[in-house]
């Protein structure tokens, strides 16, 4: 048995070390997308720092989000990480206060520019690696609890986890095939989902490529509103929206004749009904399942006697069970939002300014999509569903040393690294990647 080392000498003198060696891959992918040039040329920046160009600060925020800095204050650990700074092309990493003040300095026109760049990049990436012929929009809302009443837009609203605490209530649209974000709205906490549904859909509608005409929407009960649904009928947009279990609908579902379509007693039925203030009758689908003996966390489902009920309004020409099967994959929305909260800093509000927090929100959505595109275009298919936490652990957060050897720049990593093949596959795909 070998002897362990007992005496050490500690020296803080090697500036070439980093534990973000794998971030080189993501950085190179962003270079291939020409991300820096987009921010330089497509936004007329009003803010000018003496030490940093706005583009450098934007990229610093995005890269630190991907690297795992959940709060802007966490970026202070990068001040001594010269290797990470070299990757960004910075002589010194910005202080947290510099990043925070930069967010506060961004005006509405510059925010529109950031959103426009996100849209331009999505348009370039859309259809890669395989062309798409249809779109499925998954609309969802979530709650972001806030700590403090001085934050602009901090209002008390629907907040099931922390009742009575102020919050934001954002709406986000994901594309069902790729899981890319299509648009998002950050809103005060007392705003109802239906009040922003039209604005969210209007923004998404403008971004749809003209050659795509098969468009469908899946949404939860927060979007069950005639002001949102009736325009979809007029535009001939297919939809499945969870219905609110109003008293008339509760009475309807109790009197229907159900047909079994799955094992374990799952049953389905349909009916036609015109809710109050709606212009015409709509088609409703009801799915019910027997209550298990022990059932937890079913606060969103209406129950009657021995069944839990799911009710949907739809204009799709599908059988009731097919409507259910079409809607089911929307459950991925919950995982996507959890990813934004747990792997990205969606739940961490950086300033007291609502506009600055909107900027931060849209940078999170952009960073999320950049990671999504990186997985889809640079990694094997089995990695496409990996969380960012997994990517950091397995690929991005690697001990490394940056070495300059003659005219070559070398990043040296541990010889026993188990994903060497994956790493070089990613390098090869990035080197051969070309945007349309």
TrEMBL record:
InterPro entries for this protein: RNaseH-like_sf, Tnp_DDE_dom, Transpos_IS1380
Span of domain Transposase DDE: 15-434
A Pfam cross-reference name: DDE_Tnp_1_4
Annotated transmembrane regions: none
Protein name: Transposase DDE domain-containing protein
């Amino acid at each position: 048995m070998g002897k362990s080392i007992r005496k050490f000498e500690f020296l803080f003198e090697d500036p070439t070390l980093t534990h973000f060696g794998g971030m080189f891959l993501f950085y190179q992918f962003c270079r291939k997308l020409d991300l820096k040039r987009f921010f330089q040329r497509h936004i007329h920046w009003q803010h000018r720092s003496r030490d940093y160009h706005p583009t450098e600060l934007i990229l610093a925020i995005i890269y630190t989000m991907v690297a795992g800095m959940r709060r802007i204050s966490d970026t202070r650990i990068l001040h001594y990480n010269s290797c990470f700074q070299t990757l960004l092309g910075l002589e010194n990493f910005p202080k947290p206060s510099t990043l925070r003040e930069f967010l506060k300095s961004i005006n509405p026109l510059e925010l529109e520019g950031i959103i426009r760049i996100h849209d331009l990049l999505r348009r370039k990436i859309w259809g890669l690696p395989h062309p798409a012929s249809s779109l499925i929009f998954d609309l969802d809302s979530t709650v972001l609890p806030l700590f403090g009443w001085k934050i602009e837009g901090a209002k008390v609203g629907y907040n099931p986890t922390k009742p009575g605490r102020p919050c934001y209530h954002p709406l986000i649209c994901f594309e069902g095939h790729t899981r890319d974000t299509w648009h998002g709205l950050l809103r005060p906490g007392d705003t109802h989902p239906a009040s922003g549904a039209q604005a969210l859909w209007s923004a998404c509608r403008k971004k749809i490529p003209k050659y795509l005409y098969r468009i469908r929407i899946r949404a939860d009960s927060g979007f069950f509103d005639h002001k949102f649904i009736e325009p979809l009928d007029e535009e001939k947009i297919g939809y499945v929206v969870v219905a609110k279990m109003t008293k008339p609908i509760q009475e309807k579902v109790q009197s229907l004749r159900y047909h079994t379509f799955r094992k374990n007693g799952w049953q389905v039925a349909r009916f036609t009904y015109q809710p109050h203030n709606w212009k015409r009758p709509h088609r409703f689908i009801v799915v019910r399942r027997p209550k298990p003996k022990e059932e937890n966390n079913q606060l969103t489902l209406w129950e009657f006697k021995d069944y839990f009920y799911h009710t949907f309004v739809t204009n799709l020409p599908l059988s009731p069970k097919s409507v259910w099967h079409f809607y089911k994959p929307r459950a991925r929305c919950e995982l996507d939002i959890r990813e934004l909260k747990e792997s990205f800093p969606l739940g961490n509000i950086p300033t007291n300014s609502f506009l600055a927090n909107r900027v931060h929100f849209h940078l999170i959505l952009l960073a999320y999509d950049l990671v999504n595109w990186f997985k889809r275009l640079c990694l094997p298919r089995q990695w496409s569903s990996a969380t960012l936490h997994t990517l950091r652990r397995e690929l991005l957060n690697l001990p490394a040393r940056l070495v300059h050897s003659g005219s070559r720049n070398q990043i040296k990593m541990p010889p026993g690294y188990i994903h060497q093949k994956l790493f070089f596959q990613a390098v090869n795909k990035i080197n051969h990647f070309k945007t349309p």
